Amino acid sequence: MLGRPLRRLLPALFVHSNTGKPALGLIVAKDYQRFLTTSVSSTNDKRMSLEAAKRSAAYKAVDEYVKDDTVVGIGSGSTVVYAVLRIAERVKAEGLQLVCIPTSFQARQLIIENGLVLGDLESNPQLDCAIDGADEVDAQMVLIKGGGGCLLQEKIVASCADRFVVIADYTKDSTRLGQQYDKGIPIEVVPMAYVPIRDRIGASFGGSLKLRMAIAKAGPVVTDNGNFILDWHFEDDKDHDWDAVNREIMMIPGVVETGLFVGMANKAYFGQSDGSVTERGS
Q1: Which ranges of 136-271 does DSSP label H, i.e. alpha helix?
Q2: How far is CA 16 from CA 5, 9, 24, 35, in A?
Q3: Active-site positions?
Q4: What is the percent of the chain where pLDDT is above 90?
Q5: CA 124 to CA 72: how far, in whole Å?
Q6: Phi and psi torsions of 129, nearest 5°
Q7: What is the pTM of this model?
Q8: Would you say 68 and 97 are in contact if contact means Cβ atoms under 8 Å apart?
Q9: Structural contact between residues 214 and 221, judged by C-beta atoms closer than 8 angstroms
Q10: Mean pLDDT to the nearest integer, 194-218
Q11: Cβ-based burial of 217 (10 A; exposed 0-12, middle 13-18, buried ≥19)
Q12: Is 263 left (phi over 0), alpha (psi -120 to 50) or beta?
């Protein structure tokens, strides 16, 4: 069955073909259908390469950092799914004794569904390592996190770990923040204060801030902690001292946490489209 764009195109082509080129419409139709098929195939190939890249980064990080008799922080997001799968494989194959600390509802469900030992920070306030994804990583290992809305608990768990390890695909590896990720820096805020916080950050640092809206519910996104998220689309054509920016934003009453992770990551693994992994940090 022809798609709607093709149905709109063909009548005009067929009318034109009746003026003396009866085969033209059929040829163009076949070419257009081939174009559609090629586009879908190209999109699927890219998606598959991204998933392979995520898997490669996650597996290498888990194999190098997860040891027996340790406490591991489990991050959130699509790349972390592969990390949990690899941890579960190793627990089964090697009999590893681990306690896993979640950073979100999603992470908690992953831990439970894969039969891993679920812990919390009350019983395990010190972690050996935390493994998490990132929306973007710059050359100085400053991260943007929180695209999935879990930034507060992710930062808390990361801050409790001896080693904070980032896993990501090649599209998250940038020279400077904003180079590839264009959804802004998430800022978790107390709901009653989102308007004054929005205005104050915009006045101090420029750019624009938008309240993140939910997709499957009416109104704004509400985090696991009952807060709102402002996405700050900062001016990416100038240099920023992200440590200073983060500190100043955190001083605004009503700001709970930012998605800027400055000076926290020890190591980053970036999976490539060919299955290889590049590393940053030590």
Answers
A1: 151-159, 194-205, 242-250
A2: 18, 11, 8, 21
A3: 154
A4: 80
A5: 10
A6: -155, 160
A7: 0.83
A8: yes
A9: yes
A10: 96
A11: exposed
A12: left
